[in-house]
């Protein structure tokens, strides 16, 4: 008889074509975080996750010029937000330019998430950000 794992996880996935923009990703993410009860217990965290999702999906659409696969996984310690796109080029944080209208997405993700990382995979790359509710610290 196999041992039962003590890890419990719940997850959701959605493909977002370039034409969909980031609003659909934000709305979809907010709805799923509400099912976790976070809208009532951690509204600031929900806002942080939604903003990070918006930035990551926008990066996939603009820089990779590809659809974005958005995956949310909650393992009772961390909400893993994964955005996959078709480009193998890893994202780079750029220095801030006060006059620039863009280029701060990864700086925002870095400030909002507990951790984040990017890695290549066979058909592109994954950017993964982890968000931990305050109770988990």
TrEMBL record:
SUPFAM superfamilies: ATPase domain of HSP90 chaperone/DNA topoisomerase II/histidine kinase. Gene3D superfamilies: Histidine kinase-like ATPase, C-terminal domain. It holds the Pfam family HATPase_c_2. The keyword Kinase applies. Residues 25-130 form the Histidine kinase/HSP90-like ATPase domain. One of its GO terms (molecular function) is protein serine/threonine kinase activity. The keyword Acetylation does not apply. It comes from the Bacteria. InterPro entries: Anti-sigma-factor_SerPK (IPR050267), HATPase_C_sf (IPR036890), HATPase_dom (IPR003594). Keywords: Kinase, Serine/threonine-protein kinase, Transferase. This is Regulatory protein. It comes from Streptomyces collinus (strain DSM 40733 / Tue 365).
